[in-house]
C-alpha cells in the first residue's frame, strides 16, 4: 500500500492553456458565424431555409452526443 503525504497548501493550478483554447474556439466560432452569415445573405429564401434546417439538425445531434 502506498501512502501519500498530506500537503498543507494545494498545488498551484494554471488555467491559462484552457482559457487560451476557449478564446481560440470563440474566435473561430465568430469567424464561422460571419462567413455563414455572408453566405446566407447571398442565397435565396429556399436555400436559407434548407441551410437553417440542416444547422438545426446538426446542432441537435451535437447536443445529444
In words, what does this structure look like?
With 65 residues, this protein is mainly α. It contains 2 helices and no strands. The radius of gyration is 22 Å and the shape is elongated.
List the keywords.
2 helices, mainly alpha, single chain, 65 residues, elongated
Characterize this entry briefly.
The protein has two helices and no strands.
Subunit organisation of the chains: single chain
Helical percent range? over 70%
- Could you tell me the radius of gyration in angstroms? 22 Å
Q: What's the end-to-end separation, in Å?
A: 39 Å
Largest sheet: none
Q: Rough shape?
A: elongated
* Percent range for β-strand residues: under 5%
Order of helices and strands: HH
Number of beta-strand segments: 0
| Main structural class | mainly alpha
Number of helical stretches of at least 4 residues: 2
Average the pLDDT over all residues and give the rounded result.
85
Low-confidence stretches: none
Task: Give the arrangement of secondary structure elements.
Blueprint (H helix, E strand, L loop, with lengths): L15 H26 L3 H20 L1
